[in-house]
Structures are given as C-alpha cells and as structure tokens.
C-alpha cells in the first residue's frame, strides 16, 4: 500500500496502517506481528484479538467489566450507570421490586441534585431495596484524582478508572448561564490528528457507557455549586467518540433522559474526525447534535493533518452529510475548523470552504490552535482569523470565532491527556508546507 509522503515500512507508515486501516484485519495482523508499534500493548491486544469484520466497533471492556446479556457487570454486580432506563427497570423487576422503585432509584442517580454514589444516599427508598442494591449493584465507575482551575475559570478534572488509567473531563463556564462539560470517550485516541496532543498518546482503550455518563454526573455533583447548572455536554474530550459508537450512543441516551439528567438533545454534541459509516448511523439513530472536525479544505492537507482522511476523504465526508441532512428537519451540523498558521488559513482556503459546505445546513466554528509540547503548528493571528471569518460570513455562512479556553492548564481543545513512553509519530510534513511551517515559527 503506497501512501503519499510516507516511506513504506517506516514508523509513520505503521501508524497510518493502524489509524486508517482499522477495518482491515490482514493489515493489523502484519503490524501486530512486527511489534514495532507506536501504540500501547493494550491497544494492540484489543485489535489483534478481534475477529469481527468491523473492528471499529469493537470495544475493549474496561478491566473487571464484562458484558452479560447486554447488562454491564463488574464482578458479580451490575453497573447502574451503564444501563438505559428500560434496562434498569427490567433489572429491578427481576429482583422482585416494582417499576416505581426503579424510577425512584433513577431519579436519585441522575436528578434532584442528589447524584447518588452510594446506597446510603438513596433517601426515601425502602430498606430492603437499598440492601439489595448494596449487595448487587455498583454505583461508581470513576474516582476523583484531581481538579485544576485555569485562569479563565475553566476546570480540568482528572478521573481514575478501575484499571488505573486516567481520563480528563473539562468544565467550561460561559456567560449567559451556559456551562459546558466536555467528556472523554476513550483513553487516548487512534486517529493521530497531527495538531492534537491526545492523538500522540495512541489508543489505550475505549470507555464504557457508565464511565462516560459518570463524567457528566460527577461534573454536576462536584462543581454545580461553583459554576452553576451544567447545561451542555460535548463529546470533545479524549478520543474519537464514533470509534466507540455503541457506548457513546448509550451514554447520550442516558444523558438526555427526561426523568434523569435531562440534557436537551440539541445541547449534547458528539464530535467526530470523520468516520463516514458511523456518521450515517449516528444521524439515523440519535437526535443529539453532530460536530465534524474539518480543519482543511483540500485532501492534500487533510491527509496530512487528519490521517483518517486517507480512508474517508472530503468528498465522502461532505457527501454523506449532504445526503443525510436532507432527511433531517431543522438540523445543522457544526463544522470545527482549527486554524493552523500557513497551513489552512489562506484566503483561498476560506473560498474553498464556502464551496465545500454549500448545500449542507451548518454552522462553522473557527478555533484558535492550542500549542502543546512538541507541536509543529502555530496559531493563526487574530486579525487573520477575523478576515477569514468575514469572508465566510459575507458568503452567507453562519460562522463563529472560538477563543481558546483553559489553555494555561492544558485543558483546551486538543491539549488533553498525558504522553507515555510510547507515542504515535508525527507524520512527515508535505514539502509544500515545510516553508509555511518554518515561516510561521
Ligand atoms: S482531534 Fe479528536 S479524533 Fe483527532 S486525535 Fe485528537 S482526540 Fe482523536
């Protein structure tokens, strides 16, 4: 397989095979056999042991969690936050209790400002029911490790998972009563976007639905008194959410349940780097909002900065959106465009972007690049971002400039995670852009 700008057999080549060729088991076997991988062993294991023809949907279960008849288990206990309401109701009934008691439990897990983490916090439930829960149910999926506060009030929460891995969740207070929690869907990420710190980690594993849901629950429980009501959820933390499709969809269903956390579906946004088949499924199966990280106006640039584009190019990505959104009423996709100086921020880029999104109901967020250790890109100057924005706006696009939030605590977009000894490689810079990158330094 030949890839432009990448030597066959090089480390970069192997990383692309892993990130782009995840649906090709033969390629995976070759790479696992060679063992010179820039990803963790757990990632290799999760790929190599999977015999499904569609490994993008294979989820490595968190340590100690097994799936039995669709009900998430930890040892002999069910994981309460891994169940949609009908599943919880069935499980409660299977233990001889009434549906009304299931609803009371659900409301104490997710509503009424209780956010229970222990059977003792279930005020008003009968003693037998509480005893049964303490014997057969697990309330917790995460434990708090640390909270950092950036100078602009953004909070980065570090959570420890059962298996010792750490994820990051960010709470971003905004004006006008809107506060957003940015949740992670994986530990690390397989997509290797070149501007993203998380991408350098490689993929360690995907999160369970309970681990995703509990980030939002604990953000409310820990921080509501300080930041006010958390109104919005964005799946823009660590990981590619649609690479963990089933658990992300399940978590989104739990987040929007009207008797529980009750986030509005339009205020729960799932972001993707552009996994085309999963986008189609998402638009058909979920009412939640979709964001697509675009970041380039040509395949040449996108192949480099977002290697997933070598599998699903701009035409395929924008084609599926154009086709699917025709069937959805009153729905706009959000395009995110991280502005990289000298790479994707020219006037020609602005004009191409207008052409690319024509016919797609959308909003566009222009995002300031957040530098991190080892990053080769520089942020576009503010005046240039404004000029770029104005060109789009004059052509009739709905476009916003998004300032960086929380960057002094590495809590900003693309800055989450911690690099281990083994890192995903930086891809070779296409010759055409080497000068531009040097000039922007
Ligand atoms: S930008 Fe998103 S999809 Fe790309 S590497 Fe980072 S976390 Fe993964």
SSE layout and pairings?
Elements: H1 11-20, H2 25-34, H3 41-48, E1 65-68, E2 71-74, E3 77-79, H4 85-94, H5 99-110, H6 127-136, E4 137-138, E5 143-149, E6 155-160, E7 166-173, E8 179-182, E9 186-188, H7 197-200, E10 203-206, H8 209-227, E11 232-235, H9 245-256, E12 268-272, H10 276-285, E13 289-293, H11 299-305, H12 314-325, E14 333-339, H13 347-357, E15 362-368, H14 382-394, E16 399-402, H15 431-439
Parallel strand pairs: 3-4, 8-11, 11-12, 12-13, 13-14, 14-15, 15-16
Antiparallel strand pairs: 1-2, 2-3, 5-6, 6-7, 7-8, 9-10
The structure holds iron/sulfur cluster (SF4).
Iron/sulfur cluster binds next to α7.
Description:
With 441 residues, the chain is an alpha/beta fold. It has three domains: 14-49, no CATH class; 73-138, DNA polymerase, domain 1, CATH 1.10.150.530; 143-440, Aldolase class I (TIM Barrel). The chain is 36% helix and 17% strand. The protein is built from 15 helices and 16 strands. The protein has helices at 11-20, 25-34, 41-48, 85-94, 99-110, 127-136, 197-200, 209-227, 245-256, 276-285, 299-305, 314-325, 347-357, 382-394, 431-439, and strands at residues 65-68, 71-74, 77-79, 137-138, 143-149, 155-160, 166-173, 179-182, 186-188, 203-206, 232-235, 268-272, 289-293, 333-339, 362-368, 399-402. The strands form three sheets. Strands 5-6-7-8-11-12-13-14-15-16 form a ten-stranded mixed beta sheet, with helices on one face. Strands 1-2-3-4 form a four-stranded mixed beta sheet. It has a two-stranded antiparallel sheet with strand order 9-10. It is elongated. 45% of the residues are buried. It binds iron/sulfur cluster. Iron/sulfur cluster binds at residues 189, 191-193, 196, 198-199, 238-240, 273, 293, 414.
